[in-house]
Amino acid sequence: MQTNITYSSFVAIGDSFTEGMSDELPDGTYRGWADLLAGRLAARDPGFRYANLAVRGKLIGQIVEEQTGPAAAMGADLVTLVGGLNDVLRPKCDVGRVCELLGEAAERLAPTCKRLVLMRSPGRRGPVFERFLPRIEQLFSFIDELGARHDATVVDVYASEPVGDPRMWAEDRLHLNAEGHRRVAEAVWQALGYEPEEDWNAPLPPAVPVGWLSRRTSDVRFARQHLGPWIGRRLTGRSSGDGRPPKRAELLPYEG
């Protein structure tokens, strides 16, 4: 385990996962694994700077077009690139093209930083997730190849059963809750070579059985509050990130 690593700057790019949904703070903003990681890194370097260009709903083509150029220009020590899952979870998707675009992003970013981090990102276990498994595994196999090509760190959170457990996910069933984001932050922290603070992949206690009525009530609430609006956006070609600026558009000193 390496203990003398220092990163003085960090840029995160991606979609809602990196933006931090749904690790909601009291003021209604989102924190998430990238912010948590930035906080830990800042504690080791008083001059630490952090930018988070992620925007919810972004597809890999939009990430490449809108985020990789500004991120590369910042010249940060550490860059995390997580994207493509929004694409492969759509009804129609050219996975080969998604991989090409992800490769373009890595090609642009790797020469500009000391350490590029890629991720086999997590998914909530269930029938919807299982339906898209062939696409997801094709994408993640390419991410492994990309990591080897660019000597990048690949963090495998996808393989974690505890992080895929529904209890780690918010009510919308698309985004991690606070505990899920905390575990991802620890996983990246350890992958970067820092001493573990906990076992991010520790098993969860046995789940308490939920009655039929409670499950159906939860399903109805999910469909009304989350699934319906999501389908509406797909049908009209809109995105939850339309018109939304990056979370932290400039590489500035971190303030927790």
From TrEMBL:
This is SGNH/GDSL hydrolase family protein. Keywords: Hydrolase. Signal peptide: none annotated. Residues 12-183 form the SGNH hydrolase-type esterase domain. It comes from Streptomyces malaysiensis subsp. samsunensis. One of its GO terms (molecular function) is hydrolase activity. Residues 234-256 are annotated as: Disordered. SUPFAM superfamilies: SGNH hydrolase. InterPro entries: GDSL_Rv0518-like, SGNH_hydro, SGNH_hydro_sf. Pfam families: Lipase_GDSL_2.
